[in-house]
């Protein structure tokens, strides 16, 4: 069977990463969560007081980029790579609502994007990869054999994210999560560099009413048509 590149893009909390992980496991492909990379850069900016609720020193962040080393290290128990920032496992730290509140501002910066896109293209150069994000089918791998674009209503997505955060013991309100989802959608679709748009050749899946199994089966069928 030929090895392909599967690009999964879409709005936040549409279940992209759950689907991508399932697919990677089934196909024995590498899974790359590009959102984790943008989140790690945002976390670095927060830790170094470069971004806060009323300030953002973009120049300092751009200057610091050579010092930001990102790496996925495979965790055999989990079956996928975890995000390391300068050799520190930051998986937990990057999933907080605070990071979610800053990440889209960090992801608007072209210098940040070009550094991360270059690393993503390197990771996928041998194919056999499932990568999820916002610009995978449009910018990172415009030649991907299969492009999926996932959508769901903002309320459905906020409820999912809220449930996830609550399970982890994060003290957040549904309203705050919904506000964050709507704000990120706005910034991600309106930024000048690589805005979130559906690629012409992407297949759109609205999963508001699809459960995980139905969605997985549908995409697996699409993959079987390509390989
Ligand atoms: O996928 P996730 O919700 O973790 O992504 C966090 C944020 O990172 C997005 O809201 C977006 O601003 C940014 N991002 C991006 N391009 C990607 C992946 C994520 O701009 N390929």
Please identify which CATH superfamily we are dealing with: P-loop containing nucleotide triphosphate hydrolases
Label the overall shape. globular
CATH topology grouping: Rossmann fold
Number of domains: 1
pLDDT < 50 stretches: none
CATH architecture descriptor: 3-Layer(aba) Sandwich
Catalytic activity: CMP + ATP = CDP + ADP; dCMP + ATP = dCDP + ADP
EC number: 2.7.4.25
GO molecular function, one term: kinase activity
Binding site for ATP: 10-18
What distinguishing features does this structure have?
227 residues, alpha/beta, Rossmann fold, 3-stranded antiparallel β-sheet, 10 strands, binds cytidine-5'-monophosphate, ATP-binding, kinase, transferase
Describe the model.
- This protein is of the alpha/beta class.
- It has a single domain (5-219), classed as 3-Layer(aba) Sandwich (Rossmann fold).
- The chain is 48% helix and 19% strand.
- The strands form three sheets. Strands 2-8-1-9-10 form a five-stranded parallel sheet. It has a three-stranded antiparallel sheet with strand order 5-6-7, with helices on one face.
- Helix 4 (97-106) packs parallel to helix 8.
- 38% of the residues are buried.
- Cytidine-5'-monophosphate is lined by residues 12, 34-35, 38-39, 103-104, 107, 133-135, 184, 188.
- Its EC number is 2.7.4.25.
- Keywords: ATP-binding, Cytoplasm, Kinase, Nucleotide-binding, Transferase.
- It comes from Flavobacterium psychroterrae.
- ATP binds at residues 10-18.
């Amino acid at each position: 069977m030929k090895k392909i590149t599967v690009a999964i893009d879409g709005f936040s909390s549409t279940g992209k990463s759950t689907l991508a992980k399932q697919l990677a496991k089934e196909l024995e492909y590498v899974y790359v969560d590009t959102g984790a990379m943008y989140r790690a850069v945002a976390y670095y900016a927060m830790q170094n007081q470069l971004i806060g609720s009323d300030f953002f020193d973009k120049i300092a962040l751009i200057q610091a980029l050579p010092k930001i080393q990102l790496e996925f290290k495979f965790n055999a128990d989990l079956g996928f790579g975890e995000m390391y920032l300068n050799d520190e496992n930051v998986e937990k730290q990057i999933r907080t609502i605070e990071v979610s509140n800053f990440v889209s501002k960090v992801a608007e910066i072209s210098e940040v994007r070009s550094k991360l896109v270059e690393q993503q293209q390197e990771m996928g150069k041998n194919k056999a990869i499932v990568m999820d994000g916002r610009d995978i089918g449009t910018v990172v791998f415009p030649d991907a054999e299969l492009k999926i674009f996932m959508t769901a209503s903002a309320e459905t997505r906020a409820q999912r994210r809220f449930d996830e955060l609550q399970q982890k013991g994060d003290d957040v309100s549904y309203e705050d999560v919904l506000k964050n989802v709507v704000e990120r959608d706005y910034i991600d679709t309106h930024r000048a560099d690589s805005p979130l748009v559906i690629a012409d050749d992407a297949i759109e899946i609205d999963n508001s009413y699809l459960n995980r199994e139905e969605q997985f089966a549908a995409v697996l069928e699409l993959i079987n048509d390509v390989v």
